[in-house]
Specification:
Chain A: InterPro entries: ABC_transporter_permease (IPR051393), MetI-like (IPR000515), MetI-like_sf (IPR035906). Chain A: It is found in: Cell membrane. Chain A: Belongs to the binding-protein-dependent transport system permease family. The complex is a heterodimer. Chain A is an all-alpha fold. Chain A has helices at residues 3-37, 54-60, 63-94, 101-109, 116-126, 133-149, 165-173, 178-190, 193-201, 206-234, 238-243, 261-271, 275-300; strands spanning 40-41, 49-50. In chain A, strand 1 (40-41) and strand 2 (49-50) form a beta hairpin. Chain A is flat, with a radius of gyration of 24 Å. Chain B contains 17 helices and 14 strands. By secondary structure, chain B is of the alpha/beta class. Classes of the chains: A mainly alpha, B alpha/beta. The A-B interface holds A 41, 43-46, 49, 58, 63-64, 128-131, 154, 157-162, 248-252, 254-256, 267, 270-273 and B 72-73, 76-77, 79-80, 97-98, 101-103, 195-197, 241, 244-245, 247-249, 386, 388-389, 392-393, 395-396, 399-400, 403, 405-406, 414, 418, 421-422, 425, 429, 432-433.
């Protein structure tokens, strides 16, 4: 290494040192500490007591943990593909040159700026079984169907009936698709116009262009949004916790139907003071998310088209 | 260059250590005692007034009170971080988890020196401050739960007195409950999930709690079996979907839409503080009565009540233990506690109160609450190291059984297994640390 290279390397390291320090203090250290405490009986208030793999053995038979895993995977499996598809669809619509384009883009993005806790409170009211706006809107349709078809549909108690709670959360999660939409929009604008022109010359219509040009061109963005979406879905916490009013009501919702991984980790760590057990759970979810991300990357290798490759 | 590095190093050291360099003296040299409470509104005004009285009464100590939310978590984190307040106010059910984790200062020695003894307190309330043979707290303002019922609705169905047994309460419940044409419930007499604060305790009204006080959870015993049948009878009588729908329309507790105030529910289990909320939020023509909440006729008790206390503790690692205790002694000896209880609209933990206390208290059914507190039928929630886990889990089980999401047998078997496991885990942990902790606590007690 020449002297100039050495100086440049030192300068470079110096410039990124805040990030390196942040990474070491707020990511690597907590990760190692999580691993360490997962083998301890640790209440935070008292010094940790080593207990070997007891926490992991207990997790294997913990029915609430299984419930939390199921609920989290169920929510992620429905909300992520739905939100990604909707975000992509909205981005395509907002990519058309129509009057008021900027207004619509802003309007569709704005809801994703609402803080999580506010979102939880808003949706608790929107999904209220008796006076909620959602049921006020779908109520007349149910009445109409009942009158015409003789059925007995009724509006659901979204937050009280365990069959509907997670669906209510999926509906609420749609509000947060603005970020994914903006990323898709950027991807769409990067797609070369020549490809569309060539497709048009070959007689391609809207759907053919969408299938053979647009989707392949935005495929890296689909992959990115899916991965980010899954990571976020696996960490879902604030909105369901607030929606369930996790103070006096069971934070896991009726029948434990809203007990998600992050909720359970929080309850174990900060309400039951079983930090060691919570660390073991957090680690398992970390491994689950990493595995899922790597699997998605592997599966998508052949399906994602990167420009220039 | 060396100077620059030194300056930066000193500045960094000062910055990182500033959390501990707190000025603990006032300008005139008085020791500052920090007090954390989660009391708000009129309750906050009450403690502020008592603190002001204390600060004016002497010149050596200055109490500074701070209002916090979510006290259980914040006190835990502050104590774990080695920087706790000198006094913290917490609910009685958290004494056991804190004490078991060696996060409180045992007060036995300080109480003995100050002449504070158990016989000065209402026994039910004093018990809440003791755990594993030590005294951890001074119970301050207290309450017992009673049946609050809507007198107008009672008159409507031909009743002019409260029920005497739980079975009679259910008969009145059926009379009061009204359904709309579409089958939905417009009004219900009683709904065990409203409010959600004591759902894990319903088995007590059938003669038995959830914990034997030693090493066994009692969900498979007669008390819970009968309580679960009673809870399940709700979905059988009124319908799961109808109950779910009814409950989803209940408004917030502290609002005019509280289901008791707007007539959706006619009977609720509530504490002495409810009077304040009724005065603030209920309609002007709202008429209510308070009576002991009756037990099942098969139980060996006429009624049951849950005793709750706000307690003052001195967290482990507090800087000014003696000064903090001086303030607590002032509360007990100088009428400060009565002033506080009047501001809170609650009872004091003390057996003897001044005649003025009864005259000044604005609760129309004060005597009912005092009688229940002294009856022997009022008990605190279980002193159990995994209290929050117990609360969350049993709360959820009671919900699921009431709505019929699980059968009573399934629900009880599941929760017995989970909670017994949680208790065993805590007992195992305790067995590992007991000797050390007992020795440490004895040293602390002897030091005072």
């Amino acid at each position: 290494m020449t002297r100039t290279e050495k100086i440049n390397t030192t300068k470079g390291l110096l410039f990124i040192s805040p990030w390196i320090l942040g990474f070491l203090a707020f990511a690597l250290y907590p990760l190692i500490a999580t691993l360490y405490f997962s083998f301890m009986d640790y209440s935070v208030l008292a010094p940790p007591v080593p207990i070997g793999t007891e926490n992991y053995a207990e997790l294997a038979t913990d029915t609430n943990f299984m419930k939390a895993v199921f609920n989290t995977v169920f929510f992620a499996a429905i909300s992520v593909p739905l939100n990604t598809a909707l975000a992509c669809f909205l981005a395509i619509l907002l990519n058309f040159n129509v009057v008021g384009k900027s207004f619509f883009r802003t309007a569709f993005f704005l809801p994703s700026l609402v803080p999580m806790v506010c979102l939880g409170v808003i949706w608790r009211w929107l999904l209220n079984g008796e006076v909620g706006l959602i049921n006020q809107v779908i109520g007349p349709f149910a009445d109409f169907a009942n009158a015409v078809l003789g059925t007995s549909f009724s509006t659901p108690a979204w937050l009280e009936d365990p069959s509907f709670t997670k669906l209510g959360l999926v509906v609420a999660s749609v509000w947060g698709l603005g970020h994914a939409m903006v990323i898709f929009l950027a991807g769409l604008q990067e797609a070369p116009v020549e490809l569309y022109e060539a497709a048009q010359l070959d007689g391609a219509g809207f759907w053919s262009k969408l299938r053979h040009v647009t989707i392949p061109m935005v495929s890296p963005y689909i992959l990115f949004n899916m991965i980010m979406g899954f990571i976020a879905a696996f960490q879902v916490f604030a909105v369901p916790f607030v929606m369930m009013d996790g103070v006096n009501e069971p934070p896991g919702g009726p029948g434990g139907s809203m007990l998600f991984a992050a909720t359970y980790i929080y309850l174990k760590a900060f309400q039951d003071w079983e930090m060691g057990y919570a660390c073991a759970m957090a680690l398992i979810f970390f491994i689950l998310i990493v595995t899922l991300t790597l699997t998605l990357m592997k599966i998508s290798e052949r399906r994602v088209h990167y420009a220039g490759k | 260059m060396v100077h620059k590095i030194l300056t930066i190093a000193i500045a960094a050291t000062l910055l990182t250590s500033c959390s501990r360099i707190q000025n603990d003296r006032t300008e005139d040299g008085r020791t500052i005692v920090t007090l954390w409470t989660s009391w708000a509104g009129t309750e906050r005004e009450g403690i502020d007034s008592v603190v002001a009285d204390f600060n004016a009464s002497q010149g050596a100590i200055y109490v500074r009170s701070l209002n916090i939310t979510d006290p259980q978590t914040k006190i835990m984190l502050a104590t774990a971080g080695g920087n706790p307040p000198d006094i913290a106010i917490m609910n009685n059910q958290f004494i056991a988890p804190y004490a078991e984790n060696n996060a409180l200062t045992p007060l036995d020695g300080l109480c003995q020196s100050a002449g504070i003894t158990a016989d000065q307190f209402v026994p039910t309330f004093w018990e809440t401050a003791n755990y594993r043979g030590r005294t951890w707290a001074i119970p301050l303002t207290c309450s017992v739960t009673t049946l609050h019922y809507n007198k107008k609705i009672f008159r409507e169905v031909g009743y002019d007195r409260p029920p005497k047994t739980l079975e009679e309460l259910e008969r009145i419940n059926d009379l009061i409950t009204q359904k709309r044409e579409d089958g939905s419930i417009a009004r219900i007499g009683h709904f065990p999930l409203e409010p959600g604060w004591w759902r894990p305790e319903w088995s007590n009204w059938f003669g038995m709690g959830s914990y034997d006080g030693e090493n066994r959870m009692l969900y498979q015993e007669e008390g819970w079996q009968k309580a679960a049948q009673w809870l399940a009878s709700y979905n059988q009588r009124f319908g799961k979907d109808e109950l779910i729908k009814l409950r989803s329309g209940f408004g917030r507790f502290s609002s005019p839409q509280n289901p008791l105030f707007d007539g959706k529910v006619a009977m609720v289990l509530q504490g002495i503080w409810m009077n304040r909320f009724i005065e603030t939020f209920a309609p002007d023509d709202f008429e209510y009565g308070c009576a002991p909440f009756p037990a099942s006729q098969n139980a060996e008790i006429p009624y049951f009540a849950i005793a709750d206390c706000d307690e003052a503790v001195i967290p482990k690692g507090a800087d000014h233990v003696e000064e903090a205790f001086t303030f607590l002694r002032y509360l007990l000896e100088q009428g400060g506690l009565e002033k506080l209880a009047l501001a809170h609209g609650k009872l004091t933990s003390l057996k003897n109160v001044s005649p003025d206390f009864y005259d000044d208290h604005d609760h129309p059914y004060l005597q009912v609450h005092i009688d229940i507190a002294n009856s022997g039928y009022a008990k605190a929630r279980p002193q159990i190291a995994q209290y929050q886990n117990y609360f969350t889990d049993t709360n959820e089980a009671a919900n699921s059984i009431l709505y019929g999401l699980v059968t009573p047998e399934e629900g009880l078997a599941q929760i017995q297994s989970r909670q017994q496991k949680a208790l065993d885990k805590k007992q195992l942990r305790w067995s590992r640390v007991e000797e050390n902790y007992q020795e440490l606590w004895q040293e602390q007690i002897d030091a005072h």
